[in-house]
Amino acid sequence: GILYVLPGLFPGLPWSDAVFADAGPGTRVLIVLMALMAVLIAVYPGLLLFESLAVPFWASALVPLLFFAYAIMSGMALMFALTSGAHALAWGLGLSLVASLLLTWLYLHTIVRNAPTAAKEARRRLTSGRWAWLFWLTIVVGQLVPLVLLLAGLSSTAAHWVIAVLVLAGAFGLRYVQLLAGLLKSPLG
Asked: Which of 78, 92, 1, 96 is nearest to 39 (CA)?
């Protein structure tokens, strides 16, 4: 949603069209409101998890930022494929992949230093325990492989769709495994 309304604010984007370029002042106000709503929708799941104080693994201010980064990364991947790999979107997708990798590392690093024991246990399950296989699979297949493919400069439409599908699957997997790792099961059953 965010990427869809951006041409209304910045008409020179590669996926801009005449509808946004010819927008009047009233329409531009609506475009700004749509952009704000799109940001809210992207951040909302992370805010909801952040407010779940009963799950310490999710109670980090970085969780909404992570979910926003995953949303931007997913949107960039889809727009990259739909526009047949526009150069500006290739750069944007690459930057969003690197940013989400860095945010993920920062999130996990702050849990090691500043979090309660339950959050540290959830982090352990995520990176080296029960859910480690899925976490590392989504990092490698959903972020590192697409980044390498982008850097290789593959120009076919099929390659752009492969990159997009890998990123979308990786973003979903990262959100899913973050939810799973945060849920602690009682030793009593």
From this structure: 1
pTM: 0.81
Contact between residue 89 and residue 79 where contact means Cβ atoms under 8 Å apart = yes
In whole angstroms, give the CA distance from residue 107 to residue 110: 5
What digits encode the pLDDT tens for the residues 141-165? 999 999 999 999 888 889 999 999 9
**Mean predicted lDDT score pLDDT of the chain:** 84
C-alpha torsion angle, residues 42, 132, 183, 1 (rounded to 10): 10
The dihedral through the CA atoms of 177, 180, 183, 184 has a sign that is negative
pLDDT digits over 71-113, tens only? 999 988 988 898 876 777 888 899 999 999 999 999 999 887 7
Q: Please report, as a single letter, which amino acid is at residue 162.
A: V
Burial of residue 11, with CB atoms counted within 10 A of its CB: 0-12 exposed, 13-18 middle, 19 or more buried: middle
Side-chain half-sphere CA neighbours of 95 within 13 A:
7
CA atoms of 37 and 113, how far apart (whole Å): 34
Q: Which of 183, 186, 137, 146 lies closest to 166, judged by CA?
A: 146
